Amino acid sequence: MSNQQLVLVTGVTGFIGAHVAVSLLNKGYRVRGTVRTMDKANELVRLNPELKDKIEFVIVKDIMAPYAFKDVIKDCDYVCHIASPFIVENITNNKDQLLDPAVNGTLSALEAAVTEPKVKRVVITSSFAAIGNFTVDPSNGYTYTEKDWNPITYDEAVSANNGIVAYCASKKLAEKAAREWVKEKQPHFDISTVNPPYVFGPPIHPMNSMDSLNTSNQILWTVINGSKVQPSIQHVEVDVRDVANAHVLALESPHLSNGRLLVSCGPFSTNSISKVLRDRFPEKKDVISEPSDVPFNEKHYTLDNSLSKSLGLKYYSEEQTYIDTAAKLWERAEQFAKAKLY
Ligand SMILES: *[C@@H]1O[C@H](CO)[C@@H](O)[C@H](O)[C@H]1NC(C)=O
Ligand SMILES: *[C@@H]1O[C@H](CO)[C@@H](O)[C@H](O)[C@H]1NC(C)=O
Ligand SMILES: *[C@@H]1O[C@H](CO)[C@@H](O)[C@H](O)[C@H]1NC(C)=O
Ligand SMILES: *[C@@H]1O[C@H](CO)[C@@H](O)[C@H](O)[C@H]1NC(C)=O
Ligand SMILES: *[C@@H]1O[C@H](CO)[C@@H](O)[C@H](O)[C@H]1NC(C)=O
């Protein structure tokens, strides 16, 4: 089982990063994970005792510093570049606060990889944000594939006054910059990207409170956190554990040399989440929002996941995703509540 190849995972204490480390270890890889502080590393292991002594942690304080990863790339066979420097709050200057950091953060890993001859591939966590055309009516029934690109231009991104549009643009520009960098520099390794939509799944990474949940899980949490708020959201989701396995696939598959992998478990609505969870956890009915009567929009755009399936990726069912995520969210919330009592 053990192939002992070494993978550098940037952002290993993040929501996706922690699961990527687990998937890689399950496949017999060795994992070196970058963290901002050793406290975060210790917290990850405390939350997941099975990871004890399994990950080699290295400190990278500022992922945007030039050559941030230069000292930690040594002897690595692969890189999974997941860390993202994003601050989405209080953006007053798209270029300086969002676009440049996204691009620089992505290129810094590629520049480091040039210095290690062993590196065969750098997998970059991109996003459906780099693919979707967010100027269109979401009810256009369109099916996105790996061939599509978010059409926003750099100039439009600089002047966008909508935070979400600017965030999506930063993901697009970062992925484009990586692909252009590879074309221009012709390094000794290739790249691939994993492009997920909304990512649900059990959070196994260090968090300060339930408020620090990632945007996607925040949507699910709102449905089950006792507020009885019923948000009416419909989009496309994927399980974080599938995203993690997709990273392993993107690292191994010869078909994905300089390729792109769109991952999706299918459409979701907050209505379907509350239905599934009220059915599965009848004893929790008083904290789970009631489904609203907003009908499911069959014409909402979808994502084509056939490439990932043809390469062997097996997806969690949406029911399993909601159930496992809810159980973990309640568990983490209970731990935070207990910690407050002492
Ligand atoms: C954003 O701005 C608000 C209001 O000025 C402030 O309360 C908040 O702390 C800021 N958030 C961050 C992350 O800087
Ligand atoms: C990004 O990189 C460019 C070119 O190296 C540099 O001029 C700029 O200051 C960097 N920006 C940030 C936010 O690091
Ligand atoms: C994006 O949507 C707009 C508005 O419908 C359309 O004009 C444009 O052609 C689309 N661009 C791409 C690349 O699909
Ligand atoms: C998830 O949220 C944490 C903050 O809790 C942040 O550090 C991390 O970058 C986010 N990850 C993703 C994939 O959005
Ligand atoms: C539940 O979620 C809603 C909406 O995000 C939020 O306003 C509320 O404070 C949350 N309640 C708890 C107990 O976390």
UniProtKB/TrEMBL annotation:
Stretches assigned to the NAD-dependent epimerase/dehydratase domain: 7-255
InterPro entries linked: Epimerase_deHydtase, NAD(P)-bd_dom_sf, NAD(P)_dehydrat-like
Keywords per UniProt: Membrane, Oxidoreductase, Transmembrane, Transmembrane helix
Gene3D superfamilies according to UniProt: NAD(P)-binding Rossmann-like Domain (3.40.50.720)
UniProt keyword annotation of Signal present: no
MF GO annotations: oxidoreductase activity, acting on the CH-OH group of donors, NAD or NADP as acceptor
Transmembrane stretches, start-end: 6-26
Family: Belongs to the NAD(P)-dependent epimerase/dehydratase family. Dihydroflavonol-4-reductase subfamily.
Protein name: Flavonol reductase/cinnamoyl-CoA reductase family protein
Classification of source organism: Eukaryota, Fungi, Dikarya, Ascomycota, Taphrinomycotina
